[in-house]
Design a protein that fits this description.
Length: about 375
């Protein structure tokens, strides 16, 4: 599990390094309040040293305040990073933590002034996510943890889509288990190159990234090789579907993109509606599977014609649970409960045979609700 986690973290670091090499390095600066509250005036960030090396990002949604956080994204073109001393004026609140990237740093608060030192952590600090992989096998999952108090961007102007966000967790866990049960979708027996990764939905707009409207992802990564960095997941092919969800958590369409050698592949069709067949191939032309959206769920047809599907719970919808079918027979039910306020994720799978529950499996993990670091 640690080896897999390191591999995916390495990919993220490499991608970020390539991006930052072309321009400014971005650093997340956050203060965490001791209780839910708001400042009496708009918070102000000042540089007490090395001011000439930094600017505060002017990009939309990068800087602001919510009930629990004061957040800024600052930028520098100086390498190595100059470790500036910072001050944030935050009138009328008490601070519990100061965080750079995902690293807690010492701070001093005197009245409305909070001072602390930068550290060299360029992690997207507001992206609260946890890496998880089932010890029984199956694809890797990035769980993006949502909490209504942290919503940002376009999510500020619409009713909070709690059911759709819950459904994204259930679909991702169900898809993970379905691929594992298929038996030949990963590992030595697969008939195609590459591997899968699953991601839930991000609603806090860290560094302006926003999964809006709500959706989830089943991605296929086929690696190439970069002589400077080694294995390069974007070098060969990256299939990136976006399964959009309505307010009840039903899948409405799939907006898919394909990247090869860092360039988007212009295909005849990239938006798949219910009933459309989406075909997945690796770069050698091997069929991975065909995919169809139907009745709010997602159907998979393997190269041998065998059909599997992910279906919303018939009574309570996909925000409650998602069922896994092999043909017309239900084989499992998946439910993932994530609580961004307390920092806990619980995972449940019930297994069925001819309509009768045979056994169950459960897992859980805790994480820091402001960094995503697993506890």
């Amino acid at each position: 599990m640690m080896k897999q986690t390191f591999k995916y973290l390495l990919m993220v670091v490499i991608t970020a390094s390539l991006y930052q090499a072309a321009g400014a390095t971005t650093i997340s600066v956050r203060l965490i309040k001791d209780k839910s509250s708001r400042c009496l005036q708009q918070p102000v960030l000042k540089f007490l040293s090395n001011q000439e090396n930094y600017t505060i990002s002017a990009k939309q949604w990068y800087n602001g305040e919510n009930d629990w956080e004061i957040f800024f994204e600052i930028e520098t073109k100086t390498q190595p990073i100059a470790l500036a001393q910072l001050e944030i004026e935050a009138k009328g609140i008490k601070i519990a933590r100061a965080i750079i990237g995902r690293t807690d740093v010492p701070f001093k608060q005197i009245h409305n002034s909070i001072t602390f030192q930068l550290v060299n952590d360029t992690t997207d600090g507001r992206h609260v996510q946890t890496s998880w992989q089932n010890p029984k096998g199956g694809p890797h999952i990035w769980f993006y943890h949502n909490w209504e108090a942290r919503r940002n961007g376009k999510y500020l102007n619409v009713p909070y889509p709690a059911k759709a966000l819950a459904a994204s967790f259930n679909f991702v866990l169900a898809c993970h288990e379905m691929l594992r049960l298929m038996g030949d979708m990963s590992g030595m027996n697969q008939k195609f190159y590459g591997e899968f990764i699953l991601l839930t939905c991000e609603s806090s707009a860290p560094r302006a990234h926003l999964d809006f409207p709500p959706h989830w992802h089943l991605e296929h990564w086929e690696s190439g090789y970069n002589k400077e960095y080694g294995i390069d997941w974007r070098k060969k092919q990256f299939i990136i579907p976006h399964y959009y969800l309505d307010s009840a958590g039903n899948i409405t369409h799939n907006k898919r993109s394909i990247t090869q050698n860092y360039q988007p592949v212009k295909s005849a069709k990239n938006d798949y509606l219910p009933g459309d067949t989406c075909i997945w191939n690796d770069t050698e032309g091997n069929l991975i599977f065909k995919q169809v959206i139907k009745n709010g769920g997602l159907y998979f047809i393997k190269p041998n014609g065998e059909e599997w599907s992910l279906r919303p719970d018939q009574n309570n919808g996909s925000s409650e649970s998602v069922w896994i079918y092999r043909g017309n027979s239900a084989v499992a039910k998946a439910k993932a409960v994530d609580n961004g306020e307390t920092g806990e994720t619980k995972l449940y799978i019930d297994y069925y045979d001819q309509g009768i529950k045979k056994n169950s499996w459960a897992d859980a993990f805790r994480y820091d609700r402001f960094t995503g670091n697993q506890l």
